[in-house]
Amino acid sequence: MATETAQTITVIGATGNQGSGVVAALLDPTKSSLTTERYKVCAVSSNPEGEKAKALLAAHPDAVQAGLLQIVQGDLRDVDSLKQAFKGSYGVFAACPFLPGNGVKAEDSEEAKQGRNIVDAAKACNVKLFIYSSLNYLSELSGGKYTRVTHEDAKAIVASYATEQLEAVTILIPPAFYSNLAWSLFARREGGSHSEKCVGRSELKLLACAADGKVTICVPVDEDVKMEWVDESFDIGKFAAAALRVGPSVSAGKTYPVCSPRITPVQLAEEYHRATGEETRVQRLSLEEAGELVKGSMGESAAVELTEMFSYARRSLRPISTRELTVLHTRRSWLAEVPEGTICSGAMKPKDDMSFADLGVKASSLSQFLERTGFRVPKDSHA
Asked: Are residues 253 and 220 in the same domain?
């Protein structure tokens, strides 16, 4: 049975890639605490009897047997159900699903509404540390040029709301996911059909068995544009567990970018080749091709958002002085491109990133991701 001293951590998005990684990290006694004390995890699901919830429990049988993992019902649209789910929780981790804005302003979007419900429930339950997986406010970051990436802006709005309403908030900001290389928007394998088959995290190792042919990295940004990446199913959990371990006295009020060092698509292809031995090239998609691909599988609203997101990322970088960056940061008025000498998609200077100093953790490189998961770009990339 769970010990009486085990702190309860409630995880929103526990059956998704980020949340399941948080659950795994919290249930690992070597990562969960400076002492031998273990966490008790309440995984929130809108359907506790569903296949995803059952799969999460099956992945941690010892924790279930010890009373350290349970599924609790919660609906992000129903703040009262969240209050019930959060009752008795020391901490809450929240990763909300991607919800296209469908033309609605970010502050009025369903994602922002659900996020505010989570914050309101955490406040009502006197949660001691709230950890939120957010994104940058791209409308502001781009100086008002890119205003239709609703899912990014909505997450930033929720993060701001959380810091206003709660006493102890830690913000995590992930970049592009390595697992997106299973998506034909990011990478393809010669001879593949690039069907609309969805490839989940649990399938990554299986793909290695069937993979052959040349690989093309086709991220729709210029070949010299640097991007940051993350293993969202591992790194987010590692950072969240570390933030809980050091406690609010260290991690509250901090924003931690969960980002690998910035690399270009060419460098990404070179690293993939070195790690796998597979012939790899770079041939980027145009924004028009990328938009049509997303539109066909996720709808027009998602296509608009992702096209604008890549429009911001793809612009060639130019050097920017420390003085200019300071002025831009102070005025909250940013260039419509990612400035050189910054991290977290241009939102932060490297010296302001305290994640390793505070938490002692770093995001995974592509090579580490490939070794840990056995992932290979599949023949049938999903659209």
From this structure: no
Indicate whether 183 and 173 sit together in one domain. no
* Number of CB atoms found within 10 A of residue 182's CB: 24
**Angstrom distance (rounded) from CA 293 to CA 310:** 13
- Per residue in 291-342, pLDDT (tens digit) is 888 888 888 888 887 787 777 765 533 333 334 333 333 322 233 356 677 8
- Containing 50, the helix (H) or strand (E) segment is none
318/83 Cα distance (integer angstroms): 47
Taking 70 as the pLDDT cut, the residues of the chain under it are 1-4, 29-37, 192-212, 313-339, 381-383
Q: What's the rounded Cα separation, in Å, for the pair 189 and 186? A: 11
Q: Which amino acid is at 372?
A: R
Same domain, 48 and 99: yes
Phi, psi of 100 (to 5 degrees): -55, 145
DSSP 253: T
Looking at the chain, list the stretches that DSSP marks H as alpha helix, in order from N- to C-terminal side.
17-26, 29-32, 51-59, 61-65, 79-86, 110-124, 138-141, 150-165, 204-210, 235-246, 248-251, 265-276, 287-298, 300-314, 322-331, 355-359, 366-373
Phi, psi of 257 (to 5 degrees): -75, 125
Q: Dump strand ranges (E) for the chain.
A: 8-12, 40-45, 69-73, 91-94, 129-133, 169-173, 176-177, 187-189, 215-217, 229-230, 254-257, 280-282
Q: Domain check: are 99 and 34 in the same one?
A: yes
pLDDT, tens digit, 9 for 90 and up, residues 247-297: 999 999 999 999 999 999 999 999 999 999 999 999 988 888 888 888 888
Count of Cβ atoms closer than 10 Å to residue 105 Cβ:
15
Domain extent, residue 310, equals 179-226+262-343+368-373
d(CA 192, CA 263): 26
Contact 158, 119 (CB under 8 A): yes
Dist CA 109 CA 95 (whole Å): 16
CA distance 56 to 97: 17
What is the DSSP secondary structure assignment for residue 171, as one 8-state letter? E
